[in-house]
Amino acid sequence: MLKAEGLWFRYGTHLPWVVREQTLATAPGDVLGLMAPSGYGKTTLGKLLAGYLIPSQGRITLDAQPLPSRGYCPVQIVFQNPELAVNPRWRIDRILREGHPPQLQYLDALGIHSSWMSRYPHELSGGELQRIAIARVLNRHTRYLIADEMTAMLDANTQALIWQVVSAFAQQSGVGIIAISHDQPLLNRICQPQAMIRLNRDQSLKYAPKPTV
C-alpha cells in the first residue's frame, strides 16, 4: 500500500503551512479522487506522494518502506502542463526512454505517431505533448499514478480517450490511481464508490461518499 501519515509541509520557515496533518492510504488497483479548489494544496500533496518534495513532518511509505531516493520511482505523477515536465533539449524518443520504455500498445492507443519521435517538445502541440507525458509512465515499473489535473487542458473527446487508456492500463497492471481535480463530474466517472476525498478550508482531508449520478 501507499501510505501518507501525518504530513506537514510549507515552502518556507515563515510561510503558512500548505499541507497540514494529512493522512491517507491507498492500495493497488484503487482509484482515489482528491477534489479541492485551486490553492488548497492538491498539487503539493501530489508532489509529496511522488517524492518530488520532502515533508516537513510525517512520512510516506510504499509497502512499509520509504520511497526510493534514486532511480525510477514507482509512484509517478503527471502534471497539467507537460512543458514543465520534459527536457526541452531532448527529442521525444529520448523523453520516452528516460525512465522505462512504455508498452507499445499504449502508444498506439493514445494516438502517438512514430513521426513524433524525432521531434523536440516545442514541435508538438500541448495535447500531443501531454500524451507523451502520460505514455512514458505507462510501464511495468509504475505502481501508482497521480493524475494532477492530467486532462484539464484537453477537449472532452480527448479527455475521455486518455482516461479509457489509463484506466485499462491500471486494471491490467493493478496500478493504483490518485486523480487530483476540481472537476466533480470527471471524478464521479472515474473514481470508485466511497473513494472521494475533499480538502476543506482548514486543509484537512475529509472522505466523502461518491454521489449517485
In short:
This protein has 213 residues and is an alpha/beta fold. It has helices spanning 42-49, 92-97, 104-109, 126-135, 156-173, 184-190; strands at 2-9, 19-26, 31-35, 57-62, 65-66, 75-78, 144-148, 176-181, 196-199, 205-208.
SSE topology:
Elements: E1 2-9, E2 19-26, E3 31-35, H1 42-49, E4 57-62, E5 65-66, E6 75-78, H2 92-97, H3 104-109, H4 126-135, E7 144-148, H5 156-173, E8 176-181, H6 184-190, E9 196-199, E10 205-208
How would you describe this structure to a colleague?
The protein has a domain of 148 residues: P-loop containing nucleotide triphosphate hydrolases (Rossmann fold, 3-Layer(aba) Sandwich). Helix content is 26%, strand content 24%. Strands 6-7-8-3-9-10 form a 6-stranded mixed beta sheet, with helices on both faces. The protein starts with a strand and ends in a 5-residue tail after the last strand.
Question: What features would you highlight for this structure?
Answer:
single chain, 213 residues, alpha/beta, Rossmann fold, six-stranded mixed beta sheet, four-stranded antiparallel beta sheet, 26% helix, disordered C terminus
| CATH homologous superfamily title of the domain at 2-64 and 72-84 and 137-208 | P-loop containing nucleotide triphosphate hydrolases
What is the N-to-C succession of helices and strands? EEEHEEEHHHEHEHEE
Strand order of the largest sheet: 6-7-8-3-9-10
**Form type:** globular
The name of the CATH topology of the domain at 2-64 and 72-84 and 137-208 is Rossmann fold
| Portion in beta strands | 15-25%
CATH class of the domain at 2-64 and 72-84 and 137-208: Alpha Beta
Distance between the termini: 29 Å
